[in-house]
Design brief:
single chain; mainly alpha; Ferritin; 63% helix
């Protein structure tokens, strides 16, 4: 019997070891490309009790703390640079889990939905691997090695994933095209700081972020496409419904500056860009609690 792609995505999601998770994603992507998996888009999957307890699979470290409790350090210090690389590494690890969750959780979508999100997971695993390798190469004050888990982190991305677990339209609206799209805005600002640091490791981080930004435009575009598709299927006006979903699920207020060029390439329309500016104005009522 040919293995189920969505069941294997769920199994990969539950793996706590980052190395094993990335290897499982790469293997599943290769199997799907080679026709060695069956796609069962209509089947509603039920995690086992063990799997449910393991959602999402992640290592014991990093310790997860509230967003405001994550220490802010200057990247101009060796430890601060390591902390910044670790923070981005954590985002990419979460993004692997988010993409895998999108594959297994929601039945009844067209086949391209599942293959596109699997491709997203594969690229996120690649990003995580590059960042983890860079993190491990950074000098540690004790002579040991930094690794994923060396600093605290927060769980904002996965928290929104849980909020939208039973509403696929909300998931597409508020995870890829809201939270992940914020990376399109933040990346050029982070790169500018790293260029000022100017060390070989900081400039390597700039190069990695170039790759991540290129790929993330495509990832946000996937979310934009399927959000629009779902709204069309339900007879919803996307812009108006987005405001409803942002309020219902307490999405964070989007703050400028916005990378408008990258957002346009990711499929944001001109009216959406105008809305971003309006929603980012502190004088306007927030669509949701920040």
């Amino acid at each position: 019997m040919i293995p189920s792609l969505r069941a294997q995505a769920l199994a990969a999601l539950c793996l706590p070891c980052p190395t094993q998770k990335c290897e499982a994603v790469q293997a599943l992507s290769a199997a799907q490309a080679g026709g060695a998996t069956q796609l069962d888009p209509a089947e509603a999957l039920q995690p086992t009790q063990e799997q449910q307890a393991s959602l999402p699979g992640r290592p014991a470290l990093p310790a997860l703390v509230p967003p405001g409790s994550v220490a802010q350090r200057s990247p101009h210090t060796p430890e601060g640079l390591a902390a910044l690389v670790h923070a981005i590494c954590h985002i990419e690890f979460n993004a692997i889990n988010l993409a895998l969750d999108a594959v297994w959780r929601f039945p009844g979508m067209p086949v391209p939905y599942y293959t596109q999100w699997l491709q997203v997971a594969r690229e996120e695993a690649y990003h995580f691997g590059m960042l983890r390798e860079l993190l491990q190469s950074l000098p540690h004050p004790t002579g040991q090695c930094y690794d994923y888990g060396s600093f605290t982190a927060h769980d904002g991305l996965w928290a929104m994933c849980e909020k939208t677990a039973h509403n696929m339209t909300a998931r597409m609206a508020l995870v890829p095209r809201t939270l992940e799209a914020r990376g399109l805005d933040a990346t050029p600002l982070i790169q500018a700081k790293l260029r000022k640091v100017g060390t070989p490791q900081a400039l390597r981080a700039v190069d990695i972020l170039d790759i991540i930004l290129r790929d993330e435009v495509g990832h946000v575009a996937v979310g934009n496409h399927w959000y629009g598709w779902l709204c069309q299927q339900q007879g919803l006006e996307p812009l108006a419904h987005y405001r409803v979903l942002a309020r219902q699920h307490q999405a964070p207020r989007l703050k400028p500056p916005f990378n408008q060029e990258a957002r346009r390439r990711a499929g944001f329309k001109e009216q959406e860009m105008t809305d971003l500016v309006e929603l980012g104005n502190p004088e306007n009522p927030a669509p949701a609690a920040a």
